[in-house]
Each structure stands twice: as structure tokens, then as C-alpha cells.
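Researcher: We're teaching a course module on how sequence relates to structure. For the next exercise, students receive a sequence and then see the predicted structure as C-alpha cells, so they can try to spot secondary structure elements on their own. Here is the exercise chain.
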Amino acid sequence: MSGSTARFDEFETVDWIHDGAKERRRQTEPQRHTEPRHQLLLRAYNAIESWVVVTLVGVLIGINTAIISIATEWLSDAKLGVCRSSWWLNEKFCCWEHKAGECTSWSTWDHAMGTDTVVVRYMAFVALGTVFATTCAWLVRVYAPLAAGSGLPEIKAILGGFVLRGFMGFSTLVMKSVGLALAVGSGLSVGKEGPAVHMGCCVGNVVSRNFARYRRSAARQREIVSAAAAAGVAVAFGAPVGGVMFSLEDLSSRFPRKTLWRSFFCALIATVSLQAMDPFRTGKLVMFQAAYDRDWHVFELVFFVIIGVFCGAYGGMCIRLNLKVAAFRKKHLAKWAVAEVAVLAAATTAVTYVNSYTREDMGELLSYLLQECKEGSKGWNNMCDASQASKVAWSLAAATVIRAVGTVLAYGCKVPCGIFVPSMAIGASFGRLVGTLAQMLHRAHPSWHMFAQCAPDTPCITPATYAFLGAAAAMCGVTKVTVSVVVIMYELTGALNFLVPTVIVVMIARIVGDMVVEGGISEQLILLNGLPFLDDMEDEVLDVPVAALMCRVDDVHVVREQGMVVDEVRRVVTTDVRGFPVVDDVGRVTGYVGCRALARAVADAGIDQSATIAFDQSVHRAGVLQLSALVDSSPVTVRPQTSAETVIEIFRKLGPRVILVTSEDDGQLEGLVTRKDILRHVRSQH
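Model: And here is the predicted structure for the students to work with:
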């Protein structure tokens, strides 16, 4: 485990204990002063409000995803040609009423210009892809720099108890949505499924902030953001249960039963909204949904293991190489983000056009790779033609390499980008390659003992199912997520008979991937980019007392229980800390007070600067500003000899912003420790 703390200061720490107590007081206070007949209505409103918010979030996520899907399809097809009758239609809708090969409304760019040459098609593909990607990078840099990347590492940090201002704001949502359509449509080896989580969280944040209950409480808002993250994954893959599982397994540090139920409801509403929009006009939630009616054979386990090993190795190497690219990008290309994207897009489109498998949009490619061959059909790009099997195998091998290199280079550049679908496309290409080779082997040697299970005159090996397993394994290899990947793939296909092979390849990919590098790509980027995240320390052994990690009392700003004047307090609250221990005249801890609340109270009091302030509720003298109501009289405290592991567990389970360290005998303040102090110490040791 290695990493920096470069971006710690951009994040504020949430105090879940204080926030939860404050919210409970807000809920009970109105009921004390409300007539009994109105209390029932108030409780009913409080119960319904959260469901209204979750419903609005789910509907807006579904609508936003549908619009992005439509825009992405149009931009992807625009690189290849134009609909003469209606320029705003992509190729599928332009030729909706025509049979395959009989559509005259759609023209490739060379035909639209009155020529018939592959050079014009090639140049248009490269030029338009480069323009789309460059425009995206410029928009993101100028209007919303936080919209770049997938957003998953930051979301994990935010759900872990930190706040990054502007990361889930409205401008970020708009630029993420517009930029994602341009980035994916440009042909870069990036996907929209990871950023869908960030966009979902943005929607959850924007909607919930219009309700006072969520605007005032970070703990309440975290529930909505967790639900929105699940809905983002759900609409990305058309898998509501898988979305909830992904949020539970990979994103959320805390996932109580109430959040689980609301996340499922939000994911359900989002997928229903997407289904109602039906952006592909196929009744499918995503382009690459498929169904299988054939079974697998025991001898195929050998090929499944090969797929799992390859995808695990790919995932581990992809993470390692991408981290090197990210470090190089941060050191040498930070000032040239737009130019880097332009060069990357030009190079990617120039190479991918040559191979018919990489020329297609990755979502559409997955839909072809995952489809079973129909009897008598040659399939897309002759994939089902036995006489072309060797050519298909070479093309798939080349596509696997091209996409793998493109994904390593593109993921993390300054455009909205995800890695889920690119990895699935790589795994599906390799899986289809293995399936094609296995099918060729069976055709050449049908009498071999290993093929004894195959029934005569029926297809024995289905390459599409190998592609399906490869997609699942590659996704696991990069993210190191297991259970939710299996659930997502099952929801995509409904192939219950392939549940066991899916579990096998996913587990093999996870084991092999962990041999190459520990942790998924999000965890590694958290370390590389210096994001605060406490839950990545499960395997850390800190054989030190908290005294070795704490900020000592000489460096801590404190407020005295009695005797401070307004001018002193005003000077203290201008520091960059979030709160202060309250101590008595001998240094014993009597409480803790937040900086913002203290500054607001002093400013609102409007009294002379020489007036005295008291934080002791027993003081009631004329001319003394009584602020004991602001003090948390029971802050979390530990002794200096307390182990660091115990302190970490307190932060994880209770979620305080700060833990005060007091002496054993008389309770005097000796220092304090925050989550960031723990993380700084751990990362400085590696």
C-alpha cells in the first residue's frame, strides 16, 4: 500500500455523531411544541419526504441516462456517416423501416461527398472523433474540472465521511453528462458506466439539497447519495439488484438496512424510467443484453479457466500500467490536458478504424459478441461462418490488444471516462476468441474423448457464452468486485444455467488479479491521488499507541471554559480548524465546540469585543455571553496508550470528526487525532 496525501486539504471531514445528534434534536423539537393532532401529520410528512426525494432522484437518473445513450449513439454513428433525410437520426433509426442492406437514407461520408473511397471515410472517422474528444476536454477544463475521470475514487471517499465542495454540484452534473456523450462518441477507449455513478450521485445531491432536512444533515444526505450511486449502476447495466449490490460491496462504507431498502427502490425507479424512455427502441435497458438457451459441458471448464486467468492478469496489469500512465500524466502533462486528449483521440481513432471490431462503439460491439449464432446465419462480420473462423480469431486477438492498450492510455485523461465497458469489451473479445478456437478444435477433432458429451447434429460449443464469461471476468479483474459482477451479469442475460461458470471465472480473475496488484483500480487511484479514505486500511497493522499519531496539545487550538473575551474568540475562529476542545482552568477537557457554530454565535451576538464568554452552563452573570449550548459535553476521548487499531475502529464505527486524547489520571488534554492524521501516518510508512 502506497500513496500520497496531496488532496487531503480539499476534503472536509463529516462528524457523523454530531450530525446525527443534531438531526434527532431537529426532529423532536417541533413535536414538543406541536399540538397532538398535528404531530401525526408531521411524522407522516417526515416518513414520506425521503421516499419523495428517492423517487425524484430515480426518475431524473433514468431520464438523464436515456438522453446520454441517445446522444452517444448519434455521435458514434456520426463518425461513419449521416442520415440524408434526417441528419439528427443515427443509423439504426434512419434505417428503421428498411431491411438490412436496403437503406438508401444513410450515407457514409464518402458517398455524401459524391465519392467512393475508403480514405475519405477514414479521414472523417479520425477527424470527427478528434473534434468530439477535444471539445469535451475543453468544456471540462473550462467549466467543470471536477467532471473529469470516472469519479468513483472520490465518491468512495465522500461516502466514507468526507466532503469535496462542488464535486456533486449542478455544473459538474451538466458537464459530466455532456462530456460523457462526447468522450464515448469520440471513440476513445472509455465507458460511461463508471461516470454514471458520479452523475447519479450529482442528481441525488442536487435534488436532496432542495429539502431542508437533507440540506442540513450530511448523514441524511449520505443515504440519498448511496441510493443514487446504486441507481447509477442500475441504469448503466440494466441491473437494479446488481446496482444495489455494487453500492454495498464497493462504494459505501456504511450501509444500514434503511439505506439498503431506499437504494433498491431508487434503483428500481431509475430502471423503470429508463425502460419507459426506451432509448434503443428495442425494449432493452442496455444495448448488450442477451439471452442463452444452451447449456455448458464439463470439459469447457478448461477453457473457462483460461479466460479467468487471462482476465485476472489483464486486470492486474491494466491497473499497474494505468497507474504509471497517471503518474506520468500528473507530472508532465498537467498543463497540456486538452492537447493530450486530442492526440490520444487522433491516435485511437486512426488505429481502431482499421479493425472492424474496434471500429464499432463498445456497447454495440458487446451486443454482437454476446449474441448466439443462429442456424444458417453468418452473423455480424462473419463471426458465425465456419469458413471464416481463422480470420475471425485473428481479428478478435488484434481487437483485444488494441482495446487493452487504448484503455490503459485513455482511462484517467481529462474527460469523463469509465473503465467498466472497455474492460468488458476486452474480456468479451478474448472470450469470443477462446470460444471460436474451441469450436474450431471440436470441428477438426469431433471424436476426441473430451468432446464425448457433445450431442450429435447440435452445436456443442457456443462462443457467445465465452464472450459473456470473459466480460464478467475482465470487469472483476479491474474492479476486484465479485458478487455484484455475478449478479449484474445474471440480470443482463438471465442465464441461470451459466451461474456456476460465471462464479468460477470471476473468482479465478480475482485471485490472479490480486497476485498482480492488491485492490481494484479505484482503491489504487485513491492512493495515487492522495484522497482520504479510511476503509482501505483493513490489512494494516499499526503497532503503535495513539500518542504516536496525535497532534500534541501544544499545537492544538483550545478555548477556555471561562475567562475568554470576544476578541480572543474571534481570533481563534479565523484559524483553519473545524473545532476546538473546551478545557477548564487546569487543562481538563470539558467538551468540544465547532468552529462555524462558535463564529456564527459570536457574530450574531453583536456585543463589545471586551465582553466575556462562558462555555460553562453554571455561569450566569450580567455581561457574560453564555455559549454552553454550543458545547458537546461528551466528546469521544481515549487514553494516550490506546492502540491505533482501536482508534481506527472508533472512526469507522462511530464516525467522529475528532478524538480527544486525555491523560489517565486527571483527564487533562494531551492532544487530538483525526482521520486524516491516521491516514497521513500510514501512508508515510510506505
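Model: If you want an answer key for the exercise: DSSP finds 26 helices and 14 strands in the chain. The longest strand covers residues 589-594.
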